[in-house]
Design a protein that fits this description.
Helix content is 77%, strand content 2%. With 345 residues, it is an all-alpha fold. The N and C termini lie far apart (89 Å).
């Protein structure tokens, strides 16, 4: 139970975070490639320099080949995968670290000589722990590698006395290299991840600011829209009020009153059309062009503006050639002319 809790804590503290599985695959390819390179180099050294290192025992060659094969199989297996969840990534990391440490210790043990060069294989697991896991886990990997190195020195000279201080100093130097490499890699990677976190936070804040600006722009658009509604509706309402007021003037005859009522009805229809257009603001209507007489549109606007103009002692007079035909949207043209006429001060 205690071991399980410790393992969960190490996993929780790990920095094993990659953007996607493809990134993890590229990382793991580098680590496996480093292991394969070291194993191949050690095998070549044993084969090419037997006079200096001695002929390697068959068991050592078998372990070297097995280590090489295990890493190659992992590489092929991983490249055949489309995805891995976090638990499997953590498990794979721990297994490969333990496997390569065990291979290094087994090769040094089977060499039957002071073959401390095999502990170079400890570098790859330490770098992997520093790159993937927490600082505590990195120190744990460094401590395990150093402990295996010192144990191998002690056991070797227990079986092959006498031993001297130089051998332990050499093991201490190697352990110091383990610690420097592990902590340096962890510090650099942690610094990069810290910068990446800051950048992600900045991008998130920028996105939030953008969303706030969009909301504010929408509110501003609603304000402008409301102002446009008030402006566009004001003129037809004013025309209706003026036409009805004129129609109820006792000095007008029946024909003139009927004309004022017709103007009020047309402006009411225009007001309804404007309301429909505003409700369809998100999908503005394209002009519906039809063959029409421009002079008629100008004359109509002059007629509906005369009652309001009379209230201000203004006389409206229009001039235009007959038969001035064009492809126009009569309703939109009349609304534009009405806005121009009503905005004149």
């Amino acid at each position: 139970m205690l071991m399980a809790n410790v393992l969960k804590q190490l996993i929780r503290e790990s920095s094993l975070l990659v953007p996607d599985f493809q990134s993890f695959k590229r990382q793991e390819t580098i680590f496996v490639g480093l292991n394969l390179l070291l194993l191949a180099a050690l095998l070549l050294v044993d084969i090419l320099f037997p006079s200096y290192f001695g002929s390697p025992p068959p068991a050592l060659v078998v372990v070297l080949a097995a280590g090489f094969l295990a890493n190659a199989v992992e590489l092929v297996w991983m490249h055949g995968k489309k995805s891995l969840n976090l638990d499997r990534i953590v498990a794979l990391t721990w297994v490969t670290i333990a496997l390569n440490m065990a291979i290094a210790f087994a090769l040094a043990t089977l060499s039957y000589r002071q073959g401390i060069q095999y502990f170079a294989l400890m570098i790859a697991p330490i770098i992997q722990a520093a790159f993937r896991l927490s600082r505590g886990t990195t120190l744990l990997a460094v401590t395990a590698s150093a402990s295996l190195t010192f144990f191998w020195i002690w056991n070797y000279f227990r079986l092959h006395p006498p031993s001297g201080l130089n051998e332990y100093m050499e093991a201490g130097t190697i352990s110091l290299i383990y610690a420097i490499v592990g902590l340096l890699v962890w510090t650099l990677v942690n610094h990069l991840r810290s910068k990446e976190t800051d950048l992600t936070r900045s991008l998130t804040e920028l996105q939030q600011a953008k969303e706030r600006l969009v909301i504010e722009e929408r509110l501003a658009a609603v304000g402008r829209f409301s102002s446009a509604i008030a402006h566009e509706i004001r003129n037809p309402v004013a025309m209706i009020s003026s036409a009805l007021a004129t129609a109820f003037n006792r000095g007008l005859d029946l024909t003139e009153r009927q004309e004022m009522f017709e103007i009020a009805a047309k402006e009411a229809s225009r007001l309804e059309s404007l309301t429909t257009d505003f409700l369809a603001y998100a999908r503005p209507r394209s002009p519906s062009r039809q063959r029409g007489d421009v002079a008629d549109s100008i004359g109509y606007i002059a007629d509906i503006c005369r009652p309001r103009a009379a209230e201000r002692a203004v006389t409206i007079h229009t001039e235009g050639a007959d038969g001035l035909w064009a492809d126009i949207d009569g309703s939109q043209l009349q609304q534009a002319l009405l806005n121009l006429a009503m905005n004149v001060r």
